[in-house]
Amino acid sequence: MALIPTVSWSETTPAGTDKRYLGDDYLRALQTKIREIIAVDHIMEASGQGALWGQHKLIHLYDSVTGKTVEIYNSGVDLYVMDGDGNIIQLTDGGVLDADLSGCVMLTGNQTVAGVKTFTELPKTTTAAPTESSQVVTKATLDTHRTADPIDHPDSSITEAKLNFTPMQAYTGVYSGDDNGTQAITGVGFVPTFLILWKVATSGDAESWYKARVYFKSSADGYVKAASTLEDDHGFNRKSSFTDGIQSFDGDGFTVTNNDTYGQNLNESGFTYVFLALRTTT
Asked: Which of 5, 9, 165, 234 could bond to 229 as cystine, CB 3.0-4.6 Å?
């Protein structure tokens, strides 16, 4: 609580009619009044002088609404506040801020921050690569993985040996056999690299295929060869010789024949043929 001056302040004294010999008494009383008012918050003694005179010994903050006064003072190196109800709060401890900051996000140290936080600007983090599953992945880390080989990254469970995509084009279609020597199947849009083809069976047709046949053009001799047929002796590496089965792979599809030398009549009248044409783009 603030000190109350012992003598009331009055600007009506002296009145101008007092005796002259009372002048020194009035001067002493005035000094006392001024000192007691100053000494409420500052260091000032009744006599003498000193380097600390005039410095704050505490600060009183008065609230005209509540009529209460808050005191701020120090004890040793630490700072304290006493509110208008007499509660004392320590602001520093050993010269370091001693406030309850449990609800604040600090600049340093470990903290767990709860709730949704919305940033009006993109937050920045360290450029170091994360080492724990819960750490933030930075753009720098993503750029490094993207410009390197992300499939063959040592920490990846998917390697190039396990997953090797080759860009491809594909086209599916059907055609009807017309029993002509050859028939050009067009509309595919590219020269096939592989061709999977099967004949739709009819009831009672013992020779109808029950397997698809795969054809490819050999890079060794240029022939279109059957990679799989119904009979084992007409299996892998059986070449169509440009007269049996597939005559050629063309710019917009392929050409079939009705030659049945090896059981590969791909243009038999009355039958529907379904195909899947594939082309690698590399």
From this structure: 234
DSSP result, the chain: -----SS---TT-S-S-S-GGGHHHHHHHHHHHHHHHHTTTB---SS---TTTTSBSEEEEEETTTTEEEEEEEETTEEEEE-TTS-EEE-EETTEE----TTS--SSS-----S----SS-----SSPP-STTSPPPHHHHHHHHHS-STT-TT-S--TTT-----EEEEEEEEE---SSEEEE----S--SEEEEEEPP-TT-TTS-SS-EEEEE-TTT--EEEEE-SSGGG-TTEE-TTTSSEEEEETTEEEEE---TTS-----TT-EEEEEEEEE--
Whether this prediction's pTM lies above 0.70 is answered by no
- Domains: count for the chain: 2
Question: Is 65 domain-assigned?
Answer: yes
Q: Among 44, 61, 93, which residue terminates a domain?
A: 93
The domain boundary residue, chosen from 50, 70, 93: 93
Q: Which domain holds residue 193?
A: 168-280
